[in-house]
Design brief:
Blueprint lengths: L6 E11 L1 H17 L6 E7 L3 E4 L10 H6 L3 E4 L7 E3 L2 E9 L9 H17 L29 E3 L2 E11 L2 E9 L4 H8 L11 H4 L5 H16 L1 E4 L6 H6 L5
Parallel strand pairs: 1-2, 1-10, 3-4
Antiparallel strand pairs: 2-6, 3-5, 6-9, 7-8, 8-9
């Protein structure tokens, strides 16, 4: 029996940056993949310091208490991807960059979301979290916190959203990034957005898998990505979060 050789892909290990740097790294990672016409995906894991509000690509900032954020050391940045505002604090964030052709359904937005999220779900299953796609739900037109809204491409655990993701496409490549929350500070979210948070719609690691730490979650996600896509995630010489920050932005 012939065993198919796995494709070598690239991994940027967990590191912590401020919000501006995190979004700049993701954008430059996408540009790096385009410039070098990478055939294989790149998977990155990261954290945020200090806490940061990220706004969707075309979202107005009127729903964010900017004075409260400034007085409490919370950054505000804009994502390359769309969607609603999100407070990044006690979480693990991932980003995944690949050519559309790497995925079976890369040209279809929802199906490509589900392919990438399927790899995340496989990783979560390795730490006992059986995440699944929810039934499609129509978002309300009034404000509702991003992580409390579930679409058909998000991942849920026991009916609560556990992974929220957003996507951006450029020149035949996909950037998808998203958050897995270790804990949720409902009081802080209420003060930032002046809206109450429905905790019964959000799953955190603290509630779902309290014994799992950051290293275990990171390793599980890497294992899930490798197994799901049949790849080996490797470090690539000259490709790191720090080297990307030093690169000039593309127009």
């Amino acid at each position: 029996m012939t065993v198919q050789k796995r494709m070598d892909a690239y991994f940027l290990p967990y590191a912590v940056f401020c919000g501006r740097e995190n979004m700049e790294i993701d954008e430059k990672l996408l540009d790096y993949a385009i410039e070098n016409q990478l055939k294989a995906p790149v998977f990155r894991l990261y954290g945020w310091e200090p806490a940061c509000v990220s706004l969707g690509r075309n979202q107005k900032d009127t729903g964010v208490d900017k004075d409260f954020c400034q007085n409490n050391g919370i950054d505000i940045v804009r994502r390359l991807t769309g969607g609603r505002a999100l407070l990044h604090d006690k979480e693990l964030t991932y980003s995944f960059v690949c050519p559309c052709g790497f995925l079976k359904n890369g040209e279809t937005v929802i199906q490509s979301y589900k392919e990438i999220s399927g790899a995340l779900a496989l990783g979560l299953s390795k730490i006992g979290i059986m995440a699944e796609f929810p039934e499609n739900k129509k978002a309300h037109t009034n404000f509702e916190y991003c992580m409390s809204l579930s679409t058909g491409a998000d991942l849920c655990f026991e009916g609560k959203k556990i992974v929220g993701s957003a996507q951006f496409r450029k020149q035949g490549y996909i950037l998808q990034h998203g958050s897995i929350m270790f804990d949720c500070d409902a009081e802080m979210i209420q003060k930032v957005f002046h809206e109450s948070l429905q905790n019964d719609k959000i799953a955190t690691l603290k509630d779902s898998a309290p014994a799992v730490n950051l290293a275990q979650l990171s390793n599980a996600l890497v294992d899930g990505m490798e197994e799901y896509f049949g790849i080996n995630l490797l470090l690539k010489e000259g490709l790191s979060a720090e080297s990307l920050l030093r690169r000039d932005k593309r127009a």
